[in-house]
Amino acid sequence: MLLNIVIFLVGLIVLSWSADRFVYGASALAKNIGISPMMIGLTIVAMGSSAPEIVVSAIASANGNMNTAVGNALGSNITNIALVLGITALVKPLLVSSTTLKRELPALLIISLIAIGFMFDGELKSYEGIILLGLFIFVLAMMAWLSLQVDKEDPLVAETADEIPKGVSNTSALIWIGVGLVILPLSAHFLVNSAVEIARYMGISDLVIGLTIIAFGTSLPELAASVAGVLKGEDDLALGNIIGSNIFNLLAVLGMPGLIAPGILDPDVYNRDMYVMLGLTLLLFLFSFDLIGKRTISRTNGFILLACFIGYQFWLFG
């Protein structure tokens, strides 16, 4: 048991590091070949923030742990909104002013409803996985298109540009991309296997291990990035990372088990977890969206979200 815990923790650290290095290399290479910082931020960086979840989901599905992969997708969204955004807002209230985010928020809500519609019958089918992954490619294309249409005065433009690495040679960028592509799946393999062994030892289901330990672990980079972002005054970027990550979790992460290991879902998915995710997404929409101007996600909002996360954990293990 102790060995599996050590393997899990080391795997988690290496997974997060390799994902960060992959995004670093890909962003630097994209900048070097002339892609705009906004397009890099909305596509490469956003997708990279979900890279740990995507790879873990693929490995878990390939190993026959479909509900671990589903739990990872739903649990990561729950954790991103309730824990990551909750703590971030408690550290410093977030001012939501980007029109880009106000386009992404309705998209997240629509995609959440589509995902719930697919899970509602208690089964994730192969064609549903294909549809989700197809929508993932479509959303990437739409984000690339939006990056070309965005108002230059949008605060997200300057915040994104500041985060893109500068002065990195193409050779270095390619090396880091290669390192990420090799180490990401290896670390995910060890993380998933150790997590499954821990779950068996503790007598909990594959779903719960995906909803809790794996989801929390793979969301730690978002927590660090969001807190660092608001402390630097990059509120829209911090919130954008969470929204983008949640969109990709529902499309790419949830699409993996549908494509690789379709089958019957744990009943708790469609009786509990997907509704918790939808409820938190609606709260995020309510706290963030204002048709007539800027909106602040306050410390009170952060406390409500964090209380929801704690209550959900008690529900899982109570």
TrEMBL record:
Keywords: Membrane, Transmembrane, Transmembrane helix. The keyword Membrane applies. This is Calcium:proton antiporter. GO terms for cellular component: plasma membrane. It is a multi-pass membrane protein. GO terms for molecular function: calcium channel activity; calcium, potassium:sodium antiporter activity. It is found in: Membrane. Its main location: membrane. The chain crosses the membrane at residues 6-26, 38-62, 74-95, 107-124, 130-148, 173-192, 238-262, 274-293, 300-317. PANTHER family: INNER MEMBRANE PROTEIN YRBG, SODIUM/POTASSIUM/CALCIUM EXCHANGER. It comes from the Bacteria. GO terms for biological process: intracellular calcium ion homeostasis. Residues 5-143, 173-317 form the Sodium/calcium exchanger membrane region domain.
